[in-house]
Amino acid sequence: MSKSYWLMKSEPDAYSWDDLVSEGEGTWDGVRNHRAANNLRAMKVGDQAFFYHSNIGKEIVGIVEISVEGIADPSDPEGKWAAVKVKPVRKLAQPVTLKAVKANPALEDMELVRLSRLSVAEVRPEEWREVLSMAGE
């Protein structure tokens, strides 16, 4: 079974990479965009995602793994929105900035570039490898 790759954005002043690392496992919730929520629903345990600091930094800083899939968003009283649980895998050797991603022709079709407001985006395997290469891995 092949794993899928994703990119999950969080504002570091609200929930940062360091917050996730100190918790050990976090719930990815509060997503109120249908496409992003569908991406959350599509995630499977073992899938990996880039952890992206939005607003402040605007950079990919680490890799998380989906540890629990298909849960209802605990911040949604109506139970309509999706959530997952994630665990930190590792911090990237060096962060990859949004500016660097946009400047790389191999990543011009990446959802992070094309759908810049999407908080949970799909990442194709070749894009995953390219970002890891840019991070010095």
Notes on the structure:
With 137 residues, this protein is of the alpha+beta class. It has a single domain (5-134), classed as ph1033 like domains (ph1033 like fold), CATH 3.10.590.10. The protein is 26% helix and 36% strand. It contains 5 helices and 6 strands. It has helices at 17-23, 34-42, 98-103, 111-114, 125-134, and strands at residues 5-10, 26-28, 48-53, 59-72, 82-97, 120-123. Strands 2-5-4-3-1-6 form a 6-stranded mixed beta sheet. A hairpin with a 5-residue loop joins strand 3 and strand 4 (59-72). The longest helix has 10 residues, at 125-134.
Notable characteristics:
single chain, 137 residues, alpha+beta, ph1033 like fold, 6-stranded mixed sheet, 6 strands, globular
| Number of structurally distinct domains | 1
**Share of residues in helices:** 25-40%
Oligomer: single chain
In spatial order, strands of the major sheet run: 2-5-4-3-1-6
| Binned strand content | 35-45%
Tell me the Rg in angstroms.
14 Å
At the fold tier of CATH, the topology name is ph1033 like fold
Low-pLDDT stretches are none
How many extended strands? 6
Helix/sheet category: alpha+beta
What is the fold's blueprint, element by element?
Blueprint: E1 5-10, H1 17-23, E2 26-28, H2 34-42, E3 48-53, E4 59-72, E5 82-97, H3 98-103, H4 111-114, E6 120-123, H5 125-134
Parallel strand pairs: 1-3
Antiparallel strand pairs: 1-6, 2-5, 3-4, 4-5
